[in-house]
Protein backbone atom coordinates (compact mmCIF):
# COMPACT_ATOMS: atom_id res chain seq x y z
CA UNK A 1 0.00 0.00 0.00
CA UNK A 2 2.85 2.35 0.85
CA UNK A 3 4.45 1.75 -2.54
CA UNK A 4 1.24 2.61 -4.36
CA UNK A 5 0.84 5.82 -2.38
CA UNK A 6 4.46 6.78 -3.03
CA UNK A 7 4.08 6.19 -6.76
CA UNK A 8 0.95 8.33 -6.89
CA UNK A 9 2.59 11.17 -4.98
CA UNK A 10 5.69 11.54 -7.14
CA UNK A 11 4.03 11.41 -10.57
CA UNK A 12 3.95 14.96 -12.03
CA UNK A 13 0.80 16.27 -13.67
CA UNK A 14 0.12 15.62 -17.34
CA UNK A 15 0.60 18.72 -19.44
CA UNK A 16 -1.76 19.32 -22.35
CA UNK A 17 0.13 19.82 -25.58
CA UNK A 18 0.05 19.26 -29.30
CA UNK A 19 0.53 15.51 -29.35
CA UNK A 20 -1.00 13.29 -31.99
CA UNK A 21 -4.74 12.81 -31.63
CA UNK A 22 -5.87 10.07 -29.28
CA UNK A 23 -9.46 9.33 -30.19
CA UNK A 24 -10.40 8.08 -26.73
CA UNK A 25 -9.57 11.55 -25.39
CA UNK A 26 -10.86 13.77 -28.17
CA UNK A 27 -13.94 11.77 -29.21
CA UNK A 28 -14.96 9.70 -26.24
CA UNK A 29 -18.44 8.88 -27.63
CA UNK A 30 -17.20 7.80 -31.08
CA UNK A 31 -17.36 4.37 -32.67
CA UNK A 32 -13.58 4.13 -32.48
CA UNK A 33 -13.61 4.75 -28.72
CA UNK A 34 -16.30 2.11 -28.31
CA UNK A 35 -14.06 -0.32 -30.19
CA UNK A 36 -11.21 0.33 -27.77
CA UNK A 37 -13.55 -0.29 -24.85
CA UNK A 38 -14.66 -3.55 -26.42
CA UNK A 39 -11.02 -4.48 -27.01
CA UNK A 40 -10.07 -3.89 -23.39
CA UNK A 41 -13.11 -5.81 -22.11
CA UNK A 42 -11.98 -8.80 -24.17
CA UNK A 43 -8.35 -8.51 -23.09
CA UNK A 44 -9.42 -8.16 -19.45
CA UNK A 45 -11.52 -11.30 -19.76
CA UNK A 46 -8.60 -13.26 -21.22
CA UNK A 47 -6.18 -12.01 -18.57
CA UNK A 48 -8.16 -12.82 -15.45
CA UNK A 49 -7.31 -16.53 -15.23
CA UNK A 50 -4.44 -16.95 -14.90
CA UNK A 51 -3.79 -13.36 -13.89
CA UNK A 52 -1.86 -11.40 -16.50
CA UNK A 53 -0.66 -7.86 -15.78
CA UNK A 54 2.26 -7.20 -18.11
CA UNK A 55 1.01 -6.94 -21.68
CA UNK A 56 3.30 -6.09 -24.60
CA UNK A 57 1.90 -4.67 -27.84
CA UNK A 58 3.96 -5.22 -30.96
CA UNK A 59 3.55 -5.40 -34.74
CA UNK A 60 5.20 -7.07 -37.69
CA UNK A 61 6.78 -3.87 -39.00
CA UNK A 62 6.96 -0.19 -38.17
CA UNK A 63 3.91 2.01 -38.82
CA UNK A 64 1.05 -0.36 -38.02
CA UNK A 65 -0.27 1.73 -35.12
CA UNK A 66 0.96 -0.18 -32.08
CA UNK A 67 1.77 2.98 -30.08
CA UNK A 68 -1.63 4.53 -30.83
CA UNK A 69 -3.35 1.27 -29.91
CA UNK A 70 -1.37 0.98 -26.68
CA UNK A 71 -2.19 4.55 -25.64
CA UNK A 72 -5.92 4.35 -26.40
CA UNK A 73 -6.28 0.92 -24.82
CA UNK A 74 -4.63 2.12 -21.60
CA UNK A 75 -6.77 5.27 -21.51
CA UNK A 76 -10.08 3.38 -21.61
CA UNK A 77 -8.82 0.77 -19.15
CA UNK A 78 -7.90 3.48 -16.66
CA UNK A 79 -10.75 5.94 -17.17
CA UNK A 80 -13.72 3.75 -18.10
CA UNK A 81 -12.87 0.56 -16.19
CA UNK A 82 -11.06 2.04 -13.18
CA UNK A 83 -7.87 0.01 -13.67
CA UNK A 84 -4.58 1.39 -12.37
CA UNK A 85 -2.53 1.44 -15.58
CA UNK A 86 1.03 2.19 -16.61
CA UNK A 87 2.29 2.57 -20.18
CA UNK A 88 5.98 1.85 -20.70
CA UNK A 89 7.79 2.95 -23.84
CA UNK A 90 9.78 -0.18 -24.61
CA UNK A 91 10.66 0.65 -28.21
CA UNK A 92 14.25 1.68 -27.56
CA UNK A 93 15.06 2.11 -31.28
CA UNK A 94 12.11 4.35 -32.10
CA UNK A 95 10.49 5.71 -28.91
CA UNK A 96 7.35 7.74 -29.66
CA UNK A 97 5.26 7.53 -26.51
CA UNK A 98 6.35 10.92 -25.15
CA UNK A 99 5.42 12.56 -28.46
CA UNK A 100 2.07 10.78 -28.48
CA UNK A 101 1.22 12.38 -25.14
CA UNK A 102 2.96 15.69 -25.91
CA UNK A 103 5.47 15.20 -23.11
CA UNK A 104 8.95 16.70 -23.02
CA UNK A 105 11.87 14.34 -23.54
CA UNK A 106 12.90 14.22 -19.91
CA UNK A 107 13.90 11.35 -17.66
CA UNK A 108 12.44 7.94 -18.33
CA UNK A 109 13.11 4.23 -18.55
CA UNK A 110 16.70 4.54 -19.78
CA UNK A 111 17.55 6.87 -16.90
CA UNK A 112 16.14 4.35 -14.41
CA UNK A 113 18.02 1.44 -15.98
CA UNK A 114 21.28 3.40 -15.97
CA UNK A 115 20.77 4.48 -12.35
CA UNK A 116 20.44 8.23 -12.87
CA UNK A 117 16.83 8.48 -11.68
CA UNK A 118 14.68 6.50 -9.27
CA UNK A 119 11.71 4.72 -10.81
CA UNK A 120 9.08 6.69 -8.90
CA UNK A 121 10.56 9.98 -10.09
CA UNK A 122 10.55 8.85 -13.74
CA UNK A 123 6.81 8.15 -13.85
CA UNK A 124 4.60 10.81 -15.44
CA UNK A 125 0.91 11.34 -14.77
CA UNK A 126 -1.30 10.59 -17.75
CA UNK A 127 -4.23 12.62 -19.11
CA UNK A 128 -6.83 10.60 -17.18
CA UNK A 129 -7.12 9.36 -13.62
CA UNK A 130 -5.41 6.02 -12.84
CA UNK A 131 -3.00 6.34 -15.77
CA UNK A 132 0.79 6.77 -15.48
CA UNK A 133 3.39 6.88 -18.24
CA UNK A 134 7.04 5.84 -18.28
CA UNK A 135 8.61 7.33 -21.44
CA UNK A 136 11.93 6.19 -22.82
CA UNK A 137 13.82 9.27 -21.62
CA UNK A 138 16.72 11.01 -23.27
CA UNK A 139 18.92 8.73 -25.34
CA UNK A 140 22.61 9.18 -25.99
CA UNK A 141 22.50 6.99 -29.08
CA UNK A 142 24.91 4.50 -27.50
CA UNK A 143 22.35 2.45 -25.58
CA UNK A 144 22.23 -1.29 -26.02
CA UNK A 145 19.03 -3.30 -26.14
CA UNK A 146 17.37 -2.47 -22.82
CA UNK A 147 15.54 -5.80 -22.86
CA UNK A 148 18.79 -7.73 -22.41
CA UNK A 149 19.58 -6.00 -19.11
CA UNK A 150 18.89 -7.27 -15.61
CA UNK A 151 17.68 -3.80 -14.64
CA UNK A 152 14.58 -4.05 -16.85
CA UNK A 153 13.49 -7.11 -14.88
CA UNK A 154 13.79 -5.14 -11.64
CA UNK A 155 11.69 -2.32 -13.11
CA UNK A 156 8.93 -4.70 -14.21
CA UNK A 157 8.91 -6.47 -10.86
CA UNK A 158 8.53 -3.13 -9.09
CA UNK A 159 5.68 -1.77 -11.19
CA UNK A 160 3.83 -5.09 -11.05
CA UNK A 161 3.15 -4.33 -7.38
CA UNK A 162 1.82 -0.84 -8.16
CA UNK A 163 -0.54 -1.30 -11.10
CA UNK A 164 -3.37 -3.51 -12.34
CA UNK A 165 -2.08 -3.43 -15.91
CA UNK A 166 1.28 -2.52 -17.39
CA UNK A 167 1.09 -1.89 -21.15
CA UNK A 168 4.41 -2.05 -22.98
CA UNK A 169 4.83 -0.38 -26.36
CA UNK A 170 7.32 -2.91 -27.71
CA UNK A 171 9.49 -2.69 -30.86
CA UNK A 172 8.16 -4.16 -34.11
CA UNK A 173 9.26 -7.76 -34.65
CA UNK A 174 10.74 -7.40 -38.14
CA UNK A 175 13.23 -7.12 -39.62
CA UNK A 176 15.69 -7.81 -36.79
CA UNK A 177 14.29 -7.53 -33.28
CA UNK A 178 14.21 -10.70 -31.17
CA UNK A 179 10.90 -10.52 -29.28
CA UNK A 180 11.93 -13.46 -27.11
CA UNK A 181 13.65 -10.94 -24.82
CA UNK A 182 10.31 -9.26 -24.14
CA UNK A 183 8.24 -12.46 -24.20
CA UNK A 184 10.30 -13.82 -21.33
CA UNK A 185 9.51 -10.70 -19.26
CA UNK A 186 5.77 -10.22 -19.92
CA UNK A 187 2.59 -12.19 -19.28
CA UNK A 188 1.07 -11.79 -22.73
CA UNK A 189 1.45 -10.17 -26.16
CA UNK A 190 -0.98 -8.46 -28.52
CA UNK A 191 -0.04 -8.14 -32.18
CA UNK A 192 -1.28 -4.99 -33.94
CA UNK A 193 -1.94 -5.51 -37.66
CA UNK A 194 -2.71 -2.65 -40.03
CA UNK A 195 -5.36 -3.76 -42.49
CA UNK A 196 -4.25 -3.97 -46.10
CA UNK A 197 -0.65 -2.97 -45.38
CA UNK A 198 1.25 -6.09 -44.37
CA UNK A 199 1.53 -9.10 -46.70
CA UNK A 200 0.25 -12.34 -45.20
CA UNK A 201 3.66 -14.00 -45.41
CA UNK A 202 5.28 -11.14 -43.50
CA UNK A 203 2.72 -11.45 -40.70
CA UNK A 204 3.20 -15.22 -40.63
CA UNK A 205 6.96 -14.77 -40.32
CA UNK A 206 6.51 -12.31 -37.47
CA UNK A 207 4.18 -14.64 -35.57
CA UNK A 208 6.53 -17.57 -36.12
CA UNK A 209 9.48 -15.63 -34.74
CA UNK A 210 7.41 -14.51 -31.75
CA UNK A 211 6.14 -17.95 -30.81
CA UNK A 212 2.59 -18.68 -29.73
CA UNK A 213 2.91 -19.33 -26.01
CA UNK A 214 2.46 -15.69 -24.95
CA UNK A 215 0.17 -14.42 -27.74
CA UNK A 216 -3.18 -13.24 -26.38
CA UNK A 217 -4.55 -12.20 -29.75
CA UNK A 218 -4.31 -9.68 -32.57
CA UNK A 219 -5.75 -6.21 -33.16
CA UNK A 220 -6.86 -5.30 -36.70
CA UNK A 221 -6.11 -1.60 -37.16
CA UNK A 222 -7.48 0.82 -39.77
CA UNK A 223 -10.05 -1.63 -41.15
CA UNK A 224 -12.69 0.10 -43.29
CA UNK A 225 -16.24 -0.56 -42.11
CA UNK A 226 -19.54 0.96 -43.19
CA UNK A 227 -21.74 2.02 -40.27
CA UNK A 228 -24.89 4.15 -40.16
CA UNK A 229 -24.00 7.75 -39.31
CA UNK A 230 -26.44 7.72 -36.39
CA UNK A 231 -24.23 5.15 -34.63
CA UNK A 232 -21.63 7.85 -34.06
CA UNK A 233 -24.16 9.84 -32.06
CA UNK A 234 -24.40 7.12 -29.42
CA UNK A 235 -22.62 7.91 -26.17
CA UNK A 236 -22.45 6.93 -22.53
Structure description:
The protein is of the alpha/beta class. The protein has one domain (2-13, 38-223): P-loop containing nucleotide triphosphate hydrolases (Rossmann fold). It is 35% helix and 15% strand. The protein contains ten helices and seven strands. It has helices at 2-10, 23-26, 31-47, 66-79, 97-100, 109-113, 119-122, 150-160, 180-183, 200-210; strands at 54-59, 85-89, 124-125, 131-134, 165-169, 188-194, 215-221. It has a seven-stranded mixed sheet, with helices on both faces. Helix 3 (31-47) crosses helix 4. The chain is globular. The two termini are 33 Å apart. It comes from Candidatus Manganitrophus noduliformans. Residues 53-201 form the AAA domain. It holds the Pfam family AAA_31.
Write the layout of secondary structure elements.
Blueprint: H1 2-10, H2 23-26, H3 31-47, E1 54-59, H4 66-79, E2 85-89, H5 97-100, H6 109-113, H7 119-122, E3 124-125, E4 131-134, H8 150-160, E5 165-169, H9 180-183, E6 188-194, H10 200-210, E7 215-221
Parallel strand pairs: 1-5, 1-6, 2-4, 2-5, 6-7
Antiparallel strand pairs: 3-4
Helix pairs in contact: 3-4
Keywords: ATP-binding, Kinase, Nucleotide-binding, Transferase, Tyrosine-protein kinase
Pfam family, one: AAA_31
InterPro entries: AAA_dom, Bact_polysacc_biosynth/exp, P-loop_NTPase, Wzc-like_C
Task: Name the descriptors.
single chain; 236 residues; alpha/beta; Rossmann fold; 7-stranded mixed beta sheet; 7 strands; 35% helix; disordered C terminus; tyrosine-protein kinase
Amino acid sequence: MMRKQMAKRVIPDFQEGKGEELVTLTRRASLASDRYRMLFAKVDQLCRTPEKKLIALTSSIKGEGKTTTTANLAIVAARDFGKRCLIIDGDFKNPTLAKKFAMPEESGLIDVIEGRVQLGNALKRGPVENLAILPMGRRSGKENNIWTTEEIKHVLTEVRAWFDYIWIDAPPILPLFDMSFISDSVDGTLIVVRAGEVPEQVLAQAIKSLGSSKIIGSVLNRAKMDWPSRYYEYGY
